[in-house]
Automatic annotation (TrEMBL):
Gene Ontology molecular-function annotations: triacylglycerol lipase activity
Chain segments annotated as transmembrane: none
Organism: Variovorax boronicumulans
Domain of life, per lineage: Bacteria
Protein name: Pimeloyl-ACP methyl ester carboxylesterase
Pfam families per record: Abhydrolase_1
Length: 309
């Protein structure tokens, strides 16, 4: 894997908070915003993946820490939600009182584009980041050149749930010592990557765990993000009116967000393209980067051609 020069991280005021971000590729190239998932910092978009995506698509790739994670603003004053109580309220169909929603996080994305002087960007979101991208397509379509929603869902409660094992690792509290965090991180990704072995990723697990740990964990922020997911409900009716060119990427063996959820996103958004990847779970395995990057680059190129006509 080609080494990538260290990035210069910046913090920018956006939507009333500060967001940490960095970028890859030519700043004059068409911008592409990467949005990460629940509790995941921007470095979960691997440096080499970002550099390859910038090169393949001719993009200025921007990644950032969502609110309440990494080096972006943390919101401890908002309190730590009772996730179990919220789940019960959601199942009963009652409205949830939460610190913020995925729409607020989509507003963060639009605010970051504002702060960077970007009128419109390609948006690529993974997991919760895909749901945030969908919220952008619903509420900020004029800011988007295209959407790529990876391993995400419409939020329809009728869709299949995660496997018990995936739920267990998702809800397992992150240890506070690095020695305990290493095996916790390895087990989490061993489950989320699915039944197959991915030796290239397993070899990087310790390095990735160290990077996340040193940048700082925020369990309260993860709980608030999870509350935002629960409170944001079913996007499916609103997605039927989305006109943003959309690509949906989903793994066939995703244990956390089953493939039926990705199919549902693709069926909900008019004209969306679906790419199902065999053997891929709830992760972006190194061995599958070429296929994923090629699909995103082809999609953004199609969207650009469509916009020109």
């Amino acid at each position: 894997m080609t080494a990538v020069a260290p990035r210069t991280e910046r913090r920018t005021r956006a939507n009333g908070i500060e967001l940490a971000w960095d970028s890859f590729g030519d700043p004059e190239a068409p911008p592409l915003l990467l949005v990460m998932g629940l509790g995941a910092q921007m470095v979960a978009w691997d440096d080499a993946f970002c550099a390859a995506l910038a090169q393949a698509g001719g993009h200025h790739v921007i990644r950032f820490d969502n609110r309440d994670i990494g080096h972006s603003t943390h919101l401890p004053h908002a309190g730590v939600p009772d996730i179990q109580a919220l789940m019960l309220q959601a199942m009963a169909g009652r409205p949830l009182q939460v610190p913020y929603t995925l729409r607020d996080m989509a507003d963060d994305c639009a605010g970051l584009l504002d702060a960077l002087g970007i009128a419109r960007a390609h948006v690529v979101g993974a997991s919760m980041g895909g749901a945030i991208g969908q919220e952008m397509a619903i509420h900020h379509p004029g800011r988007m050149r295209s959407l790529t929603s990876i391993m995400s869902s419409t939020g329809d409660p009728a869709l299949p749930p995660p496997t018990p094992e995936a739920l267990a690792v998702l809800f397992a509290p992150a240890p506070t010592s690095f020695e305990a965090y290493l095996p916790h991180h390895a087990k989490l990704w061993r489950v989320l990557r699915g039944p197959d072995a991915f030796p290239l990723d397993e070899a990087r697990d310790a390095e990735r765990a160290q990077l996340a740990f040193l940048r700082g964990l925020n369990p309260g922020g993860v709980a608030r993000q999870l509350a935002a997911v629960f409170a944001s409900g079913n996007r499916k009716p609103a997605l039927r009116a989305v006109q943003v060119p959309t690509l949906v990427i989903h793994g066939d063996v995703d244990p956390l967000v089953p493939v039926a959820c990705g199919i549902d996103v693709a069926e909900a958004i008019p004209g969306a393209t679906l790419l199902r990847i065999p053997r891929m779970g709830h992760a972006l395995p190194i061995a599958m980067w070429p296929q994923i990057i090629e699909a995103i680059a082809a999609h953004t190129a199609r969207a650009a051609r469509r916009a020109d006509h």
